[in-house]
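User: I'm writing a short report section on ligand binding and want a predicted complex to refer to. Could you take this sequence and nicotinamide-adenine-dinucleotide and write out the structure as tokens? A short remark afterwards would be nice.
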Amino acid sequence: MVEVEALRGARVVVTGAGGGIGAALARAFAEQGARVVVNDLDGDAARKVADETGAAVVVGDAAQAVPAARTALGGGIDVFCANAGVGTGGGPEADDAVWEAAWEVNVMSHVRAARALLPEWLERGRGRFVSTVSAAGLLTMIGAAPYTVTKHGALAFAEWLALTYRHRGVKVHAVCPQGVRTAMLDATGPAGDLVLAPTAIEPEAVAQAVLEGIAAERFLILPHPEVAGYYAARAAEPERWLRGMNKLQRQYEDLRAKAGEHA
Ligand SMILES: NC(=O)c1ccc[n+]([C@@H]2O[C@H](COP(=O)([O-])OP(=O)(O)OC[C@H]3O[C@@H](n4cnc5c(N)ncnc54)[C@H](O)[C@@H]3O)[C@@H](O)[C@H]2O)c1
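Assistant: Sure. The structure tokens for the complex follow:
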């Protein structure tokens, strides 16, 4: 494992760290000698990860985690991982409540955390915001409009933070994996089986990519390196890209029909 000098003794918060990618991030940061706070809505899951890693626990909504995490860490936060997310599927027919939940967790929890953190970081001239976005924030996730739209929002917010505060010591990373073997992937259904599962990686591989991205001070962290090529192809040839994605959509509809679902 890469050793990141900047993380030794760093005060780190990971939201949504009761399982999946967040738990792997908490373990990886603890192994680097960081002091970690594990946040999750699921208190039992958070406590289990914290017990393994010697971390502190803040149970509750990621959007409100900063004050309690600051207290648990004795006053300051060096690294904030905005990792909690919801994998909401559907299209425009999904209820407003579904769209709002995706917006709240996938975007506004990042905004609220940044609002709480920036005064401390700008005063100190130092801070690091690690946003778990998704390849869906660079591309599009078949069958999941609220997820795709809000992950594009999360990426836009991370980019905005990065370029606005770069010269004031605030570092930002946007982590954009494709499939990762977690509870979220298990719940994604035929679209996940088609698009994500074939190249899915373990959460530990995402954590390793994050450590390497921090060591290299890279904004865009791509645990699946091939995503860089897809992103470039989408930008260079949007018509061709859409034709290819529509082909995937039709395969997805066939899979759903076979499973007895309506596309
Ligand atoms: N699994 C994938 O294939 C994949 C791919 C790309 C990006 N991501 C992103 O990675 C992040 C982590 O996802 P995961 O796959 O580990 O999912 P997961 O479902 O395994 O874990 C998510 C954790 O977040 C917690 N959580 C949900 N809403 C919360 C909230 N409001 N406040 C605090 N905790 C909350 C859940 O209780 C859960 O423990 C998400 O942002 C997700 O969109 C996942």
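A remark for your report: The pocket of nicotinamide-adenine-dinucleotide is lined by residues 15-16, 18-22, 39-42, 45, 61-62, 83-87, 105, 109, 132, 134, 177, 179-180, 182-185, 196 (CB under 6 Å). Strands lie at 11-14, 35-40, 56-59, 79-82, 127-132, 170-175, 220-221.
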